[in-house]
Protein 1
Amino acid sequence: PHPEQGNVSAGMALFRSHCSGCHQIVAEGGYVTNAVPPGLGEATPTQIAEAVRIGPYVMPTFSQQAISDRQLDSIIRYVRYADHPDNRGGWALGNIGPIPEGLVSWFIAGTVLLGVCLVIGKRLHG
């Protein structure tokens, strides 16, 4: 494999359509019936390429017609990128995605708002 020749954006699109159903879009692994797909953070480019072509355990095989070598390079490049993404702001929170990160923000904001209401309520009744 030659991931340096791949494209991160194209790799993400390919990973999303072929791999994320089991490995999650952030390549952290997941759960499927009778198996636990591993996270790909520590996998080498060669291991990823071999897994795609051989299909270990319950993973399906992907022929060169399904995923070309050039597309595989892009997938590997995306997986390497997903292991250490470029966080340009905000809280990364383990790179679990915008929905859970937003939910955490709402919980923090709700707690602060509740605290402010309690302080104001005590001042009005005290």
Protein 2
Amino acid sequence: MKQFKVYANPQECYEAVQQGWSWTAFGFGPFWALTKKMWALGFGVIGVSIVLGGIAVASIGMEHANLIINVGSVVQCVVFGASGSKWQQTHLESRGFVFKDTVTAAN
């Protein structure tokens, strides 16, 4: 069983946020952020990844840049997986959602 924090906004729209590690955020990173309406985070990470990848390729060549890009991608996945749920909670609160309850459910 998993724990979820339930949030509601004044229009009675509800959102449940799973606690702990987020496999969806781990696997999809900035695209997960975009689906959660975290525009700045999603587009920011995509933009920074493109710019840093281009700088790496231009400065050290494609062979060594691949290693740096791959390591950066793994680090990005781990950071999103570990922090995704907390980021989602903070974003919901900034959009006017209020914490209602913590529930335990299968999914």
Protein 3
Amino acid sequence: MQTIKIHDKLFHQYITEDEIQKRIKEIVTELSAKFHDKNPVFVVVLRGAFMFASDILKKFNYPCEIEFVKLTSYTGMQSTGKINMILPLKEEIVKNRDIIIIEDIVDSGLTMDFFINYVKGLHPNSVSLISFLYKPDNLKKDVKIDIIGFTIPDLFVVGYGLDFDGEGRNLSAVYQLA
């Protein structure tokens, strides 16, 4: 088992790069079947979802557009419960379009509940949510996730876009706090 150190904490490998890439292929197959003729707008939630989104979008071989939003609710290892939208979407990008939100993790559901309602207020044709990770044990708001990469228990994880105080996003696998 591979172990890494970030700041003063140890993390053990939890999801391998091969497992992630296998799941990406399955997700892209599902997205391609549903959206190949729709020219969807992929909305990538920064910063955590950038690696997941990049791997999906490199394999989605149909017309699409890509937009970015930046939402924050975490400080260190704790969610603050308060959602800040630092980089919002413009209505003209969303209106009457099929929107596919790519998120790194649905934990409490508070951020995605807030953001999905915001997007729906911009009058899209449809809204779908893809989350790399899902922690059902922590859910405080019922959020419909259309495609889940991996369902995990209540673990603190880093890697593949997820960070611990700014570090670890560049790792190609996912690691859990030891």
Protein 4
Amino acid sequence: IAVEGVPLYSNIPQNSQSAAYTTVLADAQKHILHPSADTTARTFTIDSNANVAYPIGTAITFINQASAGVMSMAQRA
């Protein structure tokens, strides 16, 4: 099922990242997981609209699993 081309899910697909990471268009409607196995602090960056034009209403969820390293968020200008 999709609304205006954006897929809707009954469960939220996962993108597990154990390194510094910058979001991409394929991350729309997903959750980004910083797993507990990665105890290193990581920075996850939401790319600028000039580089990645997410449709209005796009949701991305970030999860820092228990015992994972510190997760910082940044936004590329």
